Amino acid sequence: MRILVIEDEVKIAGAISQKLKAEGFVVDIAPDGGTGEEYAMVNEYDAIILDIMLPVQDGWKVCSNLRNQNVLVPILMLTALDDVSDKIKGLNGGADDYLPKPFHFGELIARIRSLIRRNSSVRSTQMERFGITLDFNLRKAYRGQKEIVLTSKEYSLLELFMMNPDKILSRQFISEHLWDMNFDPQSNVIDSFVKFLRQKIDKGFDKPLIQTVRGSGYLFSDKER
Fold first, then answer.
1. Is the N or C terminus of the chain more exposed, i.e. has fewer CB atoms within 10 Å?
2. Residue 127, by phi and psi: left (phi above 0), alpha (psi -120 to 50) or beta?
3. Beta bridge partners of 220
């Protein structure tokens, strides 16, 4: 899953990015409100972490502008301002959640995961599709009773497939959600990771779940095309 962090304090932004990456997220950082709004308008994100006190334009303005442009990605606002009126202003402006500084990184990660699940209609800490189960808290995957040992990127790819069952996912869609802005779209990295994942979840089972759709991308389904 790909997260945009809009935070002007370099140390805080770096610490948030490091913790998110350790949990398997892909992270882009914007150092001010104007850049953050631009990133959010042109890239696909699964959630945005948005500070309020920003140069160029504050977080309230960024949030309002994005909602007015119909950018509906979940937004978690961060601020050192702990006044109730500030929280109300942020939530009324379109934010989905609010976390005052200082915060515990464990709570930040939990809130981000909750927002992403809520946005994808998944409510529990586990998800099951076509006999495969994901445990979001443990970041483990199972097919039936068998645990599938995955790398961090393979887990994220499987999670993306399972959140979009029976849908053809283009390589562009996959790259926008699982790689940052430095990704080379001409590379075969995505095809390689799909191959690795397919070998792990389909090998030894009668029904393959990851299907290649020529000229379009990949399909996660238990129905043969």
1. C
2. beta
3. 210
Crossing angle of the two packed helices 33-42 and 59-68, in degrees rounded to 10 = 20
140-193: per-residue pLDDT in tens?
A: 999 888 899 999 899 999 999 998 999 999 999 999 889 988 888 888 999 999
Q: At what angle do helices 59-68 and 84-92 cross, to 10 degrees?
A: 20
Which tokens belong to 16? 């948030």
Cα of 75 vs its chain's centroid, Å: 12
Judge whether 1-117 and 124-218 match in fold: no
Place of tokens 């119909």: 70
**Does domain 124-218 bear CATH number 3.40.30.10?**
no
Annotated domain spans of the chain: 1-117, 124-218
Please give the backbone phi and psi of residue 55, each rounded to the nearest 5 degrees, phi first.
-70, 165
CATH number corresponding to 1-117? 3.40.50.2300
Which pair of tokens denotes residue 56? 């160029």
